[in-house]
């Protein structure tokens, strides 16, 4: 494949979009405008952060892999700032402390794979823009981290943490369409949500150590937060669903064992 295209403490613009490229990121990488990586292999040196600021969009498509592992050390992850946007369609993120941290930004994920991250997705104050979802994605929370000193005894902690949502409708994790369900294997928690309504559809949870879905209402002004679980499967683990503090729980057509 030859030597990678290298960027160190760089601003990445549309002209740096690439297809089937071998890329190495180091330091603070900032996305400017719309940048699309399709079918790329992106390695991130230890301590690397990819930031998507307001008004910019990062697209990871068609088998792109974003990973760490240089010297068996982890990178920080992708940070989506307020009004920034991250769109994933068939891409993998691995070896990060927090694969995606989104604060008041937009996320659309279809067929994402998250593997060997301490935490896969932390989503705080989601954007009010329509179309946000996580469909058809796999969360490997069981495989050992490359740095055994991180996580919980060298293993990942959680898949999705989601809080303080002002969306007009609940966030959708999984979906009703063919292949839109998500798979969560292992971890301390698969999904943790607070002060936000949530619909979990056609998802599979296997061997969660503590709680597969931990849902805390904690809503202001006596509002009730809704958790709807439909067509899901829960196997192994300690607790399947924990719903508390001003919540309304609905479970339909789901399997527990």
How is the topology of this model organized?
Layout: E1 5-8, E2 11-12, E3 18-19, E4 22-26, E5 28-31, E6 34-38, E7 41-44, E8 49-52, E9 57-67, E10 77-80, E11 85-94, E12 98-103, E13 106-115, E14 119-124, E15 133-135, E16 138-141, E17 158-163, E18 171-174, E19 183-186, E20 189-194, E21 198-201, E22 204-206, E23 211-216, E24 225-230, E25 233-235, E26 239-244, E27 247-252, E28 255-256
Parallel strand pairs: 1-4, 2-5, 3-6, 4-7, 5-8, 6-9, 7-9, 8-10, 9-11, 10-12, 11-13, 12-14, 13-15, 13-16, 14-17, 15-18, 16-19, 17-20, 18-21, 19-22, 20-23, 21-24, 22-25, 23-26, 24-27, 25-28
Model description:
The chain has no helices and 28 strands. It has 257 residues and is mainly β.
What is the compact description of this entry?
Helix content is 0%, strand content 54%. The protein has no helices and 28 strands. The strands form two sheets. It has an 18-stranded parallel β-sheet that branches. A ten-stranded parallel β-sheet has the order 2-5-8-10-12-14-17-20-23-26, with no helix packed on it.
Provide keyphrases for this structure.
257 residues, mainly beta
Calculate the mean pLDDT score and round it: 92
* Total E-strand runs: 28
Distance from N terminus to C terminus (CA atoms, Å) equals: 47 Å
Helix proportion: under 10%
Strand content: over 45%
What's the Cα radius of gyration? 18 Å
Shape: globular
How many helix segments? 0
By helix and strand content, what is the structural category?
A: mainly beta
Largest sheet, in brief, is:
18 strands, parallel
Give, in order, the helices and strands. Answer: EEEEEEEEEEEEEEEEEEEEEEEEEEEE
* Unreliable spans: none
């Amino acid at each position: 494949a030859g030597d990678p295209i290298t960027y160190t403490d760089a601003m990445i613009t549309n002209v740096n979009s690439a297809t089937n490229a071998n890329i190495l990121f180091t330091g603070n990488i900032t996305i400017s405008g719309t940048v699309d990586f399709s079918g790329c292999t992106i390695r991130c040196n230890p301590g690397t952060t990819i930031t998507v600021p307001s008004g910019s969009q990062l697209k990871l498509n068609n088998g792109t892999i974003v990973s760490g592992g240089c010297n068996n050390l982890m990178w920080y992850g992708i940070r989506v700032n307020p009004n920034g946007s991250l769109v994933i369609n068939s891409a993998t993120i691995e070896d990060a402390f927090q694969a995606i941290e989104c604060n008041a930004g937009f996320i659309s994920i279809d067929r994402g794979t998250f593997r060997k991250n301490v935490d896969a997705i932390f989503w705080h104050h989601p954007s009010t823009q329509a179309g946000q979802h996580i469909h058809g994605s796999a969360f490997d929370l069981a495989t050992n981290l490359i740095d055994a000193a991180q996580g919980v005894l060298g293993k990942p902690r959680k898949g999705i943490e989601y809080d303080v949502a002002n969306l007009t409708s609940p966030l959708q994790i999984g979906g009703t369409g063919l292949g839109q369900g998500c798979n969560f294997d292992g971890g301390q928690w698969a999904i943790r949500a607070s002060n936000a309504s949530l619909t979990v559809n056609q998802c599979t949870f296997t061997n969660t150590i503590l709680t597969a879905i931990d849902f805390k209402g904690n809503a202001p002004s006596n509002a009730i937060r809704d958790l709807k679980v439909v067509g899901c499967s829960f196997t192994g683990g300690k607790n399947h669903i924990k719903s508390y503090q001003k919540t309304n729980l609905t479970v339909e057509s789901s399997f527990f064992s």
